[in-house]
Amino acid sequence: MRYKQKRRIKLIIILAIIAFAAFLYLQHGINLGLDLQGGAHIVLQAQPTEEREINDTVMSGIVNVIERRVNQLGLTEPLIQRQGSNRIIVELPAVDNPNEAINTIGRTAMLTFKNSQGEVLMTGEAIKDARADHDQYGRPVVSFTLTEEGSEKFADITRQYIGKKIGIYLDNEQLTNPTVQAVIEERGQITGYESIQEAREDAVLIREGALPVPVEVIETRTVGPTLGEISIQKSIRAGLLGLLLVAIYMIFYYRFPGVLAAVILAIYGLILMGTMAGLQATLTLPGIAGLILSIGMAVDANIIIFERIKDELKSGKTLRAAIDAGFKRAYTTIIDANVTTIMTALILAYFTSGTVRGFAVTLGIGIIVSMFTAFFVTRNIIDIFAGSKLLRENKSFGVRKG
Amino acid sequence: MDILGKRKIWYTISIIVIVIGLLFLLINGLNLGIDFNGGTLIEFSFSENVTAEQVRDVLERIEIAADSKIQQAESAGEHGVIIRTKTLESEEIVAIDNAIKDKFKSAEMLRSEMVGPTIGRELRINALLAIIAASIAIVAYISFRFEFRFAAVSIIALMHDVLITIGIFAILGREINTPFVAAILTIIGYSINDTIVIFDRIRENMKLMHKVPFIKQANTAVVDTLPRSINTSITTLITILAIYFFGGASIQTFMLALFIGMFAGTYSSIFVASPLLVTWQEKISR
């Protein structure tokens, strides 16, 4: 009776763990990395100029402007983050034209008004607002309004330059070079665009302001939505196939305990998904590989335990005693073997970034969950069945009596 | 079964494989991808068959990256083309995208990767640092849990696995990118894991069978853990093969490296690490 009570409690605990894992998974879902859902990963590096060196203020300024530009793209959950002393990582999930977006984000976008001698008369800082528009001839233009201070200044300039040319430049690229017809105060137009799309892009850059220093785009990775979807489908199918083959092998070799191992693997998979969801870890393509690899490690823990139990059975112990002794001796082996792998995963996570870090994190989580599963789930499940005839069968645990 | 008595045979097999790999490494070098060398990679898919020449014509017309390496690939189940070239501006990538889409209506850009030279250099340094840091951490842990000679021998076994993997990649001429570094570190973790399970048994036998010579203690440990070694490597290799064949082109290189490394890892735990402990013991007791 006592044994049966204990067995019921153990069963309830395992079911509770499964339910909790399933709850976490359904509640939070799994974050997909850019390589799986499609998107762009961009690394920008600030370049010091003669006037400005890179410091904290300059970097916050850059982040600020980039944030405003990215917001214009209307994406869900873009990520902008500083890395080290002079870098910024921008992640744009599910962006339509990733390379065009990168192009816009990375521009310095310094707007200057210059006279024909190339002297700077006014900069974009005097501009309050800029919008893409069509002028009276239907040509695409950027219409801008000036700040109060800017208006006074521009009125002075246009008065002085009536009948002469003033060039408007964005980062040294001449947009237009009109002749001043009249004194302009508050509003103006920049012509010279081939399409309204071009005008719209520049309007964003002018409106949201220039970067305090130029930035260099040092790394970009974009993945189209099709590729991401294909990767997910293929790797899930491959992973399931792998699991199935492993389960078949385990059942073939260990008989009934092998069936238990297959069930434990399924539970392991569920707990792993729950943990990933609960921790809000991001799953990348190499991460899926890490997951599948940790399945291998989880199977290994079960194999080590089963082999130990088999050894104990061979030495003549009863099933209960063999299970106790087998687990006890397997514990240290499993811990020693996994600690080193966890260390490698941690080191990998520290030294890398992006998708490979995703791999290291998933591998680390996978191994920790596999140890938990081995010590807790496997133990209880084997205990639950310790009284049943199925485990007492001769060939259980691969024992060959001869 | 006398495995450790025949250790000279096992050493010879390992040395031959490593030497051949190293020769290829010296002659051919490694095929380093854009992650290490910097550059740009763009992959397109089409519903019709598009040749590398047709793509080159387009690049020549817009005068961007006309000297690219262009390769036909079947990555997304459709017809695909991969363009590899020097570091490009995002404007240039947009121009290539537009030009290709103008010419081939079904074209879709699957991915683009641009890596500047600075990033490549950093990656090389970080990869090296990660491997050194991992090795130091492992030596420290094993020396603490076992003895220093166990640690020293595991590091040799680990170098063995890494050298074999790199050597075979040099022989095959497969392109190496960041995921390869991750694969190498995973192999390090796995190799140690595998070695420790056997060492754990040797440690146990040193207590339980203290009257018999060390070679006997070690051999019994290796033979007793053999079913575990075989079962674990079979189940792991099955999953790796499943992903290799059905997981899509993007993770094939990664899986190939894991396969070679894990295979070498199982071999080295049984046939290199434990025999080396015996060799070490003999040199000391002499």
Automatic annotation (TrEMBL), chain A:
Keywords: Cell membrane, Membrane, Protein transport, Translocation, Transmembrane, Transmembrane helix, Transport. Coiled coil: none annotated. One of its GO terms (molecular function) is protein-transporting ATPase activity. It is found in: Cell membrane. GO terms for cellular component: plasma membrane. Gene3D superfamilies: 3.30.70.3220, Multidrug efflux transporter AcrB transmembrane domain. InterPro entries: Acrflvin-R, SecD, SecD/SecF_arch_bac, SecD/SecF_CS, SecD_1st, SecD_SecF_C, SecD_SecF_C_bact, SecDF_P1_head. It is a multi-pass membrane protein. Residues 215-382 form the Protein export membrane protein SecD/SecF C-terminal domain. Signal peptide: none annotated. Its main location: membrane. Pfam families: Sec_GG, SecD_1st, SecD_SecF_C, SecDF_P1_head. The chain crosses the membrane at residues 9-26, 235-252, 259-281, 287-309, 330-352, 358-382. Residues 119-213 form the SecDF P1 head subdomain domain. Residues 62-117 form the Protein translocase subunit SecDF P1 domain. GO terms for biological process: intracellular protein transmembrane transport; protein targeting; protein transport by the Sec complex. Part of the Sec protein translocase complex. Interacts with the SecYEG preprotein conducting channel. SecDF uses the proton motive force (PMF) to complete protein translocation after the ATP-dependent function of SecA. Forms a complex with SecF. Part of the essential Sec protein translocation apparatus which comprises SecA, SecYEG and auxiliary proteins SecDF. Other proteins may also be involved. Belongs to the SecD/SecF family. SecD subfamily. This is Protein translocase subunit SecD.
UniProtKB/TrEMBL annotation, chain B:
Pfam families: Sec_GG, SecD_SecF_C. GO terms for molecular function: protein-transporting ATPase activity. It is found in: Cell membrane. Residues 98-282 form the Protein export membrane protein SecD/SecF C-terminal domain. The chain crosses the membrane at residues 9-27, 123-144, 151-172, 178-199, 234-251, 257-280. InterPro entries: SecD/SecF_arch_bac, SecD/SecF_bac, SecD/SecF_CS, SecD_SecF_C, SecD_SecF_C_bact, SecF_bac. It is a multi-pass membrane protein. GO terms for cellular component: plasma membrane. It comes from the Bacteria. Keywords: Cell membrane, Membrane, Protein transport, Translocation, Transmembrane, Transmembrane helix, Transport. GO terms for biological process: intracellular protein transmembrane transport; protein targeting; protein transport by the Sec complex. NCBIfam families: 2A0604s01, transloc_SecF. Part of the Sec protein translocase complex. Interacts with the SecYEG preprotein conducting channel. SecDF uses the proton motive force (PMF) to complete protein translocation after the ATP-dependent function of SecA. In the N-terminal section; belongs to the SecD/SecF family. SecD subfamily. Forms a complex with SecD. Part of the essential Sec protein translocation apparatus which comprises SecA, SecYEG and auxiliary proteins SecDF. Other proteins may also be involved. This is Protein-export membrane protein SecF. It comes from Halanaerobium saccharolyticum. The gene is secF.
